[in-house]
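Researcher: Here's the sequence for the chain we discussed earlier.
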Amino acid sequence: MDGTLVGLCAFGAVILLLGLRVPIAFALAGVATVGTFVMFAFRTGAFAPERAVRPTTSLVFSNSFDLIHSYDLSMIPLFVALGHIAYRADITTKIYHAARVWLARIPGGVAIASVVGCGGFSAITGSSIACASTMGRICSPEMLRMGYDKRLATASVAAGGTLGSLIPPSVLFIIYGIFTETSISSLFLAGILPGLLSLLGFILVIYVWVLRDPSAAPRFTGIITTREKFAAALDAWPAIALFTIIVGGIYGGFFTATEAAAVCVSAAVAIGFAQGKLTVKALIEALRETCVQTTAIFLIAAGAKIFVAFIALTGVAGEIVQVVTDAQLSPFMLLAAIAAIYLLLGMFLDPIGIMVLTLPLMVPLVETYGFDLIWFGVVVIKLLEIGLITPPVGLNVFVIAGVVGKEVPIDRIFAGILRFLSVDVIVLILIMAFPIISLLIPGSM
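Model: Thanks. This is the structure I predict for it:
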């Protein structure tokens, strides 16, 4: 049986199952298992199922076993736990409160503080959905109560939440690094400048929005003393310390990414108990949520690993590389086509599903063109980040809609998101045109 045909049918089947809301792990593993069985059963031409059982089970179990015993995978539960513990210890929200105090007098100051708070939250948790959900509960209701434009009050947090995908640590970077066998530490460092560039772009959108339409954000009329400002900044020191451990430790060569995660978890627990913000009950609840979230990620990763092995068996990746090579596409045209595919899929699928589905095909292509896989990883994560706020199924938008309820219709949130999307596209073009933006920090190690 033609392996290329089986591989292409498998991709179509996975996309169909994901569209029907079948869990990603089951869709990938199920299609890969059936596809592998079919490949081996028809190997000699005639259908011989007895010959397919042993190689199929071997491929499924060996790849799952190898993945679960991957050292790099151990940092996922550590960073997930760090996010939950830091939130319950009131560490992640302190950056928002500090920014809220310092930026109060700037036009749109609370919205800008929300984006800055999302950036700070992302620098610890590594999850865009968690960032949007948590900061949405804190920021959006406050802005709505103050009389902010409903579009600005919701869209700023939905867009700011996407920073969790790019600013290290990032779960998506970890999964990308495992499946492409690239340095996760280098990926973390590569995401810093693009993440800050996105953050500055969002701040600029808010500032120009309020400058052109002052009614979108009421002016702050209260009094904030210098003492209150420094007190708020001092309260944010735990979050800054944890981010410094992650980035400074990795950049300075003191820690690997996994070691940095372990040190930060220990530090967050110690700080939480020392400040009286963390209780044993809260710690147990954080660990319970960590187990649930980590299990889901591990199942997806295992299903993806099986699917990648199946795609390698079919040879479809090599065929696609050959077709693209024969077409003699320029690097620009190839990148434009890849971006279009990711943006299209981002309208309907979640980021992890898109990444594990497309990487088996995209990585051989970019390697053929000599692109740097670290830089390409940043491009992919940025595209996935854009997908989180792209209609009609922008996950972050639906998260914020769930937080604010009927007070703000979802079409109003998407109306505000369009301004942030325009900046996201500009940042994406800059990252693609100037790889040095991504490679400067990891290249200077």
